[in-house]
Amino acid sequence: MKIIKQKNFDLPKFLEENKLIIKSHLEKYLEIRFPQTIWEAMRYTVLSNGKMIRPVLTLESARVCGGEIENVIPAACAIEMIHSQSLIHDDLPCMDNDDHRRGNPTNHKAFGEATAVLTGDALISLAYQVIIENTPEKIDRNAVLQTLLELSKAAGPSGIVAGQIIDIQSENRDIDFATLDYIHIHKTGTLFKCAMRTGAILSSASAEKLKALTEYGQLIGYAFQIADDILDIKGTKESLGKTPGKDKISGKNTHPLLYGLSGSIEEVERLCSSAQQILIENNLDSPALIGIAGGITLKVTG
Amino acid sequence: MKIIKQKNFDLPKFLEENKLIIKSHLEKYLEIRFPQTIWEAMRYTVLSNGKMIRPVLTLESARVCGGEIENVIPAACAIEMIHSQSLIHDDLPCMDNDDHRRGNPTNHKAFGEATAVLTGDALISLAYQVIIENTPEKIDRNAVLQTLLELSKAAGPSGIVAGQIIDIQSENRDIDFATLDYIHIHKTGTLFKCAMRTGAILSSASAEKLKALTEYGQLIGYAFQIADDILDIKGTKESLGKTPGKDKISGKNTHPLLYGLSGSIEEVERLCSSAQQILIENNLDSPALIGIAGGITLKVTG
């Protein structure tokens, strides 16, 4: 299978427009209150120049299921909060000890370690609060509960935390392919999957559509993580916004380390192509979702 | 107003029996899975020898509203998880830097800092998951959502985190009475209040009962924190399970420091007596709730 390239779809424009929708709502949910420090510290990371790809996927997942984006915006923003939380805690000195993220000092460098720990904690609970307080009343209450459940599984000890703990335990040790898969699937895959599922669940998608969009999310989530590892090798500090080559220095097990650089690039292509095929086979007509899968491939081949 | 003492109610027996109910369910919710470390680290703190007073309050709040405890057990356990999470993160070197808790090494001393950060994160999301997955189907979905909202407000940047950040910022600085109140109300009061409200909400309590139990929770939550500060001065390492005099050494602002020891003891009596009166005025017949308020007073006077 080959990656589908679309001539008449402007992916950068789509991503920018949708990111602005998310950003304007995050601005509102994170309006500064007392105690100022915690709200400033949350804004510092959540509203820094991230790609916001996960919440954009939630919006598009809703659209392709015939739903209104208004219904999923709170959940989409909550997913970005959880993602930001995981970055803040991952960057801590006791974890990956990173000083830079997206071209800026990391949260604990800007606010101190204690505040960074609390900022992450605040973002987790605020994510649930934002969904409950802002999802429109007309949405079925069971769908809202299902959304909260998906988020808790993705963020907690069955999701991101599970991936992160195995990642930490694997540093400076030889690991097998299955363990690397486990880390990637849990650290990155679960939240991508959750982003897709949430958009579908809140849009009353059929079981078939939900299943297809779940698979799409898993595939591009995994591809996204491998691409990130590849760029850590190929990229510059300016293009990455963080120190390149960091994975190797810190003894991280990455896909290119185990499968080689060209093997990893091929894997990204294979995963993204499969993701595109799933959309086509299930009549999920979304140039944006086709384009996002293509875009991940282009990052490592282009 | 004087503290009501009950001759025919065995408070220690009540607390022990109810704690066993909570503990047996926490054992189930925290059954060890892969990745083992994170589940072991959660169990280490949650199932250490804590008093589990908050979840016991949730059970009794349900009973006094005519509800069945089966309906509130998941929420009660979730509240204990959030409490444990706040302890784990508070004890970190970058926060209060405590080596002992409940007579054992703190979580990061036993499992390392990275795991302790992740354990706290895991417990927050697991708390929501446990409520959604285990609250009986017959409970109104809006009541479940309201419970999750109460928890998110108590745990997040409007609750515990708000109190903790102001506490950190106030160390080694003179603060006024209002700031000390703010810290206590948010660090401890909100979760006690949440414990009482949750039991009532899931038991379809009337607005009047909910209001009265909310006030009771706020009052004893505040009293509980002041009593804790008093015991930090009066207690021994054996009786506390942690280093006494730690507050003074670390420059913590405590109630006894601002109001004096006898003034603080009087305040505990006043708060607990008010809490008892609220129950009586609202015909909330619970020897256990009367006894718990009395018990907090007894800790500092007896």
Put the structure in a nutshell.
Two copies of one chain form a homodimer. Chain A is an all-alpha fold and 302 residues long.
Tell me what the structure shows:
Two copies of one chain form a homodimer. With 302 residues, chain A is mainly alpha-helical. The first copy, chain A, has a single domain, classed as Farnesyl Diphosphate Synthase. Helix content of chain A is 71%, strand content 1%. Chain A has a two-stranded antiparallel ribbon. The model of chain A has no long low-confidence stretch (mean pLDDT 94). At the A-B interface, helix 2, helix 6, helix 7 and helix 8 of A face helix 2, helix 6, helix 7 and helix 8 of B.
What is the domain total for the residues of chain A? 1
What order do the strands of the largest sheet of chain A run in, or round the barrel if closed?
Answer: 1-2
The stretches of 5 or more residues of chain A where confidence is low (pLDDT under 50) are none
CATH fold title of chain A:
Farnesyl Diphosphate Synthase
Principal-axes shape call of chain A: globular
N- and C-termini, Cα separation of chain A: 18 Å
Helix content of chain A: over 70%
Oligomer class: homodimer
| Largest beta-sheet characterization of chain A | 2 strands, antiparallel
Number of helices of chain A: 15
Order of helices and strands of chain A: HHHHEEHHHHHHHHHHH
Strand content of chain A: under 5%
Got a strand count of chain A? Answer: 2
What's the CATH architecture of chain A?
A: Orthogonal Bundle
Structural class of chain A: mainly alpha
CATH superfamily of chain A: Farnesyl Diphosphate Synthase
Whole-number average pLDDT of chain A? Answer: 94
Highest CATH level, the class of chain A = Mainly Alpha
